[in-house]
């Protein structure tokens, strides 16, 4: 069953979460530990983040430097298959533009189809990944370009234009949205214009960037509905767990922290106090979202599994 059907078919606010693959060389048991802790809340699906290759400079014997491309985390394809087979919970790997060629994306789609993983989240990824001058003929520039490739794959059209027998089960997918505007969008009108394109071209649902002010989410959803965007808009939720996130999260994710929340965080003397405040704010945030009838809550668990568990225990 597709993720969109699981969301729409849930009689209560659905629960889902996102995990980070283990660093290369580490056991998948770390992933299983997160799932084992949260599975009591009946997750409808589990997202697996994907990380692009990274460049390091290796010192050669002659003292010169060589730029080497490395991948620190295993691919989300393998992790998704392992999760789906072990737990019977739909896995949703992230498929991203940045750091992956169009051919690599096609290989991933072929493998996912073979493994029976048919739900995806399509994202652009870290804008800093592509270096200036890198061949954009090999790489997608935007998530909508990636979306076109997946749509063509569903029709049996390969990236080189050749045709093949289309999958019996086509891929379905969600895409990202930004209640506080994407950092590169010139304005919200432009952001929503491209969001409409994503939905028009096949996105089944949208998942928001993390936010801490529900009013901004409600305003964003109202604006989307007025523009004819009628797919589920899933709130992306993350409890604050470290004191430095008071400044780090707004800087990296462009997510405002409301002053009442910020004021409580500033009072905290250590991270343990921050976690307690973060959990309490997140509980109230989630209860309010549920009271407003959101179809689902999607939790970002990176470094916050224990906090997510405490929140879910109170609201599910």
TrEMBL record:
<keyword id="KW-0274">FAD</keyword>
<dbReference type="GO" id="GO:0035999">
    <property type="term" value="P:tetrahydrofolate interconversion"/>
</dbReference>
<dbReference type="InterPro" id="IPR003171">
    <property type="entry name" value="Mehydrof_redctse-like"/>
</dbReference>
<dbReference type="GO" id="GO:0005829">
    <property type="term" value="C:cytosol"/>
</dbReference>
<keyword id="KW-0285">Flavoprotein</keyword>
<comment type="pathway">
    <text>Amino-acid biosynthesis; L-methionine biosynthesis via de novo pathway.</text>
</comment>
<dbReference type="GO" id="GO:0071949">
    <property type="term" value="F:FAD binding"/>
</dbReference>
<dbReference type="InterPro" id="IPR029041">
    <property type="entry name" value="FAD-linked_oxidoreductase-like"/>
</dbReference>
<keyword id="KW-0028">Amino-acid biosynthesis</keyword>
<dbReference type="InterPro" id="IPR004620">
    <property type="entry name" value="MTHF_reductase_bac"/>
</dbReference>
<keyword id="KW-0520">NAD</keyword>
<dbReference type="Pfam" id="PF02219">
    <property type="entry name" value="MTHFR"/>
</dbReference>
<comment type="pathway">
    <text>One-carbon metabolism; tetrahydrofolate interconversion.</text>
</comment>
<comment type="similarity">
    <text>Belongs to the methylenetetrahydrofolate reductase family.</text>
</comment>
<dbReference type="GO" id="GO:0009086">
    <property type="term" value="P:methionine biosynthetic process"/>
</dbReference>
<keyword id="KW-0486">Methionine biosynthesis</keyword>
<protein>
    <recommendedName>
        <fullName>Methylenetetrahydrofolate reductase</fullName>
        <ecNumber>1.5.1.54</ecNumber>
    </recommendedName>
</protein>
<keyword id="KW-0560">Oxidoreductase</keyword>
<dbReference type="GO" id="GO:0106312">
    <property type="term" value="F:methylenetetrahydrofolate reductase (NADH) activity"/>
</dbReference>
């Amino acid at each position: 069953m597709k993720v969109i059907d699981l969301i729409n078919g849930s009689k209560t606010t659905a629960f889902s979460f996102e995990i980070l693959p283990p660093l290369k060389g580490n056991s998948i048991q770390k992933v299983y530990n997160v799932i084992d802790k949260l599975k009591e809340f009946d997750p409808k699906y589990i997202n697996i983040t994907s990380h692009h290759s990274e460049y390091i400079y290796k010192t050669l014997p002659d003292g010169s430097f060589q730029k080497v491309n490395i991948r620190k985390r295993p691919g989300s394809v393998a992790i998704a298959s392992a999760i789906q087979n072990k737990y019977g919970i739909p896995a949703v790997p992230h498929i991203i533009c940045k750091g992956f060629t169009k051919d690599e994306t096609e290989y991933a789609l072929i493998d996912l189809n073979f493994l029976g993983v048919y739900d995806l989240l399509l994202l652009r990824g870290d804008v800093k990944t592509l270096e200036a001058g890198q061949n954009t003929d090999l790489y997608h520039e935007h998530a909508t370009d990636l979306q076109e490739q997946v749509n063509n794959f569903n029709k049996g059209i390969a990236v080189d234009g050749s045709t093949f027998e289309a999958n019996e089960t086509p891929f379905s997918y969600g895409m990202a949205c930004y209640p506080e505007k994407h950092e590169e969008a010139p304005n919200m009108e432009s952001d929503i214009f491209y969001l409409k394109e994503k939905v028009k071209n096949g996105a089944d649902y949208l998942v928001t960037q993390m936010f801490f002010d529900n009013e901004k989410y409600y305003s964003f959803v109202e604006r989307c509905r007025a523009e004819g965007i009628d797919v589920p808009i899933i709130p992306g939720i993350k409890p604050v767990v470290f004191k430095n996130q008071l400044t780090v999260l707004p800087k990296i994710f462009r997510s405002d922290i409301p002053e009442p929340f910020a004021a409580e965080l500033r009072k905290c003397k250590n991270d343990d106090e921050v976690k307690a405040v973060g959990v309490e704010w997140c509980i109230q945030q989630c209860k309010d979202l549920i009271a407003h009838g959101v179809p689902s809550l999607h939790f970002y668990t990176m470094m916050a599994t224990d906090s997510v568990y405490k929140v879910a225990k109170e609201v599910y």
